[in-house]
Amino acid sequence: MWPFRVDPPFREFGIKALEDEYDFIVVGGGTAGCVLARRLSENGQHTVLLVEQGDAADSWKHKTPLTSNHFSSPDPVHSNKFESVSDSKFADARPSQTWSLVNGVGLGGTTRINGGQYTPACPAEFDAWAEEGRPGWAFADMKPYFLKAEKLVCGSQVTDPESPENFNYPCTKVANQAAKDLGFPAVSDLLDPTLPTTCCYKMKYTLSADGPRLSSFRAYLPKDYVNSTANLHICTEAIVSKIGFSVGKGKDGEEGLRAESVEIHAPKGDGDITRVVKARREIVLACGALGSPKVLLLSGIGPQEHLKDMGINVIRHTPGVGANLHDHVFVTNIYNCPLPDSFARLAKQPYLFIAELLKYLIFGTGALLWTIVEMEIFGTASLFGSDGKLKAGAELKPELRPDFAIISVPVAAPNVPGVDYSKGLFAQTIALMKPESRGTLRLRSTNPADTPLCEMNYLSAPADYAVLRTAIRVSAHLCKTMQASGYPLEVAAIPEDLDDDEKLDVFIRRGLQTEYHYASTCRIANEEDALPGVLDASLRVHGVAGLRIADASVLPGSPAVHPQAVVYAVAEKCADMMLRGV
Ligand SMILES: Cc1cc2nc3c(=O)[nH]c(=O)nc-3n(C[C@H](O)[C@H](O)[C@H](O)COP(=O)(O)OP(=O)(O)OC[C@H]3O[C@@H](n4cnc5c(N)ncnc54)[C@H](O)[C@@H]3O)c2cc1C
């Protein structure tokens, strides 16, 4: 990849140049929004407007994996970072009881800045969604959408878990071997419903064959497509502040509510302008799990008590909007390893960094194109004993849904007591994949540009502690196995006593981090569900015609894998349903 290639200009529309009406309006040009804009426009039969709050920037910095990744180079223009509501139940363990929440801004949304790890799906999870009353969401229904998206966002990547050449960092290569030795079968296709879900996975990435990041923007809306598609208008640096509704008789003759327009506010560019644009057919929200419920609330759809408190006219009392907020969370066990084996060598040995930089500038290859995470194990806690080992006779069935995941990384967070930063670093991030705890999202103010109030309520369910305790023990056992194989791993910051649940719980509370995988704030479920839903199985907002949602907010629960692949598949399915009118 030649990093400084100059692409042709991208065809964008200022707010003044927009039509008064489009067939479809897509709100939010992130992960799901770019999929929807592409699929709804590509048959040329419908006019489509995509409105995105951020910009369309796509420089070498945004394409290069290392410089676009939030973890190695945070980008304040393309990420929205704000603090959650403080949670006093963590007061015994940490000085700050809030979490910094982050989501991407600009075309491509969070796929502009995310870790790029692509873990397609847990097939059994979708079968469960369908069995719980969501027709059309069984794995057999969803698989074609996963494959369609994967072709665009992962290119032709092949990951062979058995091939040691697939690892750039020796420490993760050893971890991969230790996982296999401990009975985690190496799985290269997470979409194969016959394979065990407690497994060891060599990561795929949202990168193109020659190295650059494939955000949803770069994969689905490349410039030549956008510039040659007259029926697609993309308006950036414009925020949708609310949806407009009409009340009248629908096609079925029933009196009801219909979403008919969006109010768009563009604070920059041609001046501070607000316009109302109508949708002839449908509006689809794709503003993310923290953005779509906010737009519904600002539009008067949500829990009526909250809307009244905010002085917003109640259009429809829908208690599920902003309820059920949850997230994958993790804690980290840190070790020291030999410096040459870890990513830290680039920081500690400047001549190496300069060599890698030159390699990148001259040939477009090298470490700046590598992603940091190389392998992950997934597991179901009930299969493991208190020693972190698989129980004798444990059956690794494909029907089981993993509730924890452990990622091996050749880096560690800074300033952790006990860690020797002059040496190489190796860490295991130990994540809760099926949390039972639920939080809420509410409006902070009626200003559409304001961030929402998010009460994360992490670890309010005791079951979440139990899974994390088991996963920490599995991680420690894995690292002991690496040591036993002769690998010089030194303990740096792990729990003092793995057998003491109370001490483990303090370790968990102290080190708990968000994985930024927010979900379910507008879930697909009945309104009467114990965790009340917002959408029917066609992703239509209950009680409102002409309005769907397709993004991470719709997920009935956190997926057992990283979410972006699932969001892509949801968006593919939504576009398909919209085009078929179902
Ligand atoms: C730092 C980080 C790392 C991550 N790493 C991974 C990973 O490695 N693998 C993985 O699978 N997942 C990862 N995730 C999670 C994953 O990227 C997200 O779950 C997914 O991309 C969310 O997609 P979305 O379509 O729901 O929302 P987004 O992609 O966030 O899109 C929402 C878009 O809507 C726009 N918007 C919001 N409100 C409005 C409005 N009112 N008007 C107009 N536009 C609006 C926003 O600007 C944004 O562009 C990571 C997340 C973060 C934050």
TrEMBL record:
Cofactor section: FAD
Keyword Methyltransferase: no
Ligand binding (FAD): 110, 240, 563-564
GO molecular function: flavin adenine dinucleotide binding; oxidoreductase activity, acting on CH-OH group of donors
Pfam families: GMC_oxred_C, GMC_oxred_N
This protein's record includes keyword Flavoprotein: yes
Alphabetical list of InterPro entries matching this protein: FAD/NAD-bd_sf (IPR036188), GMC_OxRdtase (IPR012132), GMC_OxRdtase_N (IPR000172), GMC_OxRtase_C (IPR007867)
Keyword line: FAD, Flavoprotein
Domain Glucose-methanol-choline oxidoreductase N-terminal: 288-302
Active site per database record: 517, 562
Family from the record: Belongs to the GMC oxidoreductase family.
Descriptive protein name: FAD/NAD-P-binding domain-containing protein
Organism in which the protein naturally occurs: Favolaschia claudopus
